[in-house]
Amino acid sequence: xxxxxxxxxxxxxxxxxxxxxxxxxxxxxxxxxxxxxxxxxxxxxxxxxxxxxxxxxxxxxxxxxxxxxxxxxxxxxxxxxxxxxxxxxxxxxxxxxxxxxxxxxxxxxxxxxxxxxxxxxxxxxxxxxxxxxxxxxxxxxxxxxxxxxxxxxxxxxxxxxxxxxxxxxxxxxxxxxxxxxxx
Length: 183
Fold this sequence. Notes:
Residues 1-83, 102-183 are annotated as: Disordered. The protein has 183 residues and is mainly α.
């Protein structure tokens, strides 16, 4: 209580009234007392208004902070959603590129196979389709019962082999006496 009085000290109320009128003498009339009470009420009202303004400013600041936090949270959520959308779009684009690459590979492979088929002779293609893998890997030995004449005019029963491509190969003359048949 004593502390409150100390705080209220300052210029006395009637001193303020005297300052308004500009005179140095002080008279306490009912009119002046009423005026002093009005001044006191105005001061109290001013203090209450100041407190109310401070409380309102504090409340506004808290509301603004809450709004900012909400907006920030929305922005974070929006960024995360955008990031997920971009990642999904990136995955779709990568899958599309992979599919295009795979289709290109298959097309190149088919083109290479077609070119390879065009390079091989037609009769070989038929033989390759008809022949089994064992026939392709192992050369066939063809023994001819017909006696042939060498360039020297000598008869030779040569051992002829068939290559993978279907060509007949004859051994050279200097190997004429050796048996070159399959083992």
